[in-house]
């Protein structure tokens, strides 16, 4: 894979985990939905599964200090892709940028170069990845990393929630983070994870 594809997929994985985002939410993010501050990034979701009144939801992801920081991954993806919101005035299009509204567009890989010519650059499409494509990326990247398990498009969200529970976050904070409307759904995530990790006989078997 090219470094451009790697940068996009890394941003997808880390934003999905850092924001407990559904695969459909990741696929629907547009450039204008994301704002950056010194200490965090904000993602505005105009529509989401739990937003029945269509009021929109803002996801805040803090800036970290490690290479796993979602904010840094997003900045790297923007820098390498040169993505910029689509300019309505076509006469003033800047040079060397890729105009699109999609935060995570498709990338078309070129054919192999011939006669020792430099390889052509990948082409960034105008349309967003589908939610199915996001799920496929998650599964493929986990397999490539040698991580065992049955992964799906929901794995990033589930992993973020269960990790929060393991770190001792209370249900109120977890519910705010996961944006679940019902505590019962949230508790189902936690109970399934803790059935093994906190089994009474784990230290005795």
UniProtKB/TrEMBL annotation:
InterPro entries: DNA_brk_join_enz (IPR011010), Integrase-like_cat_sf (IPR013762), Integrase_catalytic (IPR002104), Phage_Integrase-like_Recomb (IPR052925). GO terms for molecular function: DNA binding. One of its GO terms (biological process) is DNA integration. Pfam families: Phage_integrase (PF00589). Keywords: DNA recombination, Plasmid. Gene3D superfamilies: Intergrase catalytic core (1.10.443.10). It comes from the Bacteria. Residues 1-205 form the Tyr recombinase domain. This is Integrase/recombinase xerD like protein.
């Amino acid at each position: 894979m090219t470094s451009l594809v790697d940068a996009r997929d890394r941003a997808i994985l880390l934003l999905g985990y850092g924001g407990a985002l559904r695969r459909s939410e990741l696929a629907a993010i547009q450039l204008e939905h994301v704002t950056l501050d010194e200490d965090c990034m904000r993602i505005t979701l105009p529509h989401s599964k739990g937003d029945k009144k269509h009021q929109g939801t803002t996801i805040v992801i803090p800036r970290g200090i490690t290479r796993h920081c979602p904010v840094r991954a997003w900045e790297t993806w923007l820098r390498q892709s040169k993505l910029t919101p689509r300019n309505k005035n076509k006469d003033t299009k800047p040079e060397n940028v890729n105009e699109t509204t999609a935060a995570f567009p498709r990338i078309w890989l070129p054919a192999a170069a011939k006669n020792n010519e430099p390889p052509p650059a990948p082409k960034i499409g105008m349309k967003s990845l589908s939610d199915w494509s996001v799920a496929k990326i998650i599964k493929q990247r986990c397999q490539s990393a040698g991580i065992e398990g049955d992964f799906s498009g929901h794995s990033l969200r589930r992993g973020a929630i269960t990790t929060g529970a393991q770190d001792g976050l209370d249900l109120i904070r977890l519910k705010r983070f996961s944006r679940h409307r019902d505590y019962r759904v949230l508790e189902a995530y936690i109970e399934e994870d803790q059935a093994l990790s906190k089994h009474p006989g784990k230290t005795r078997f």
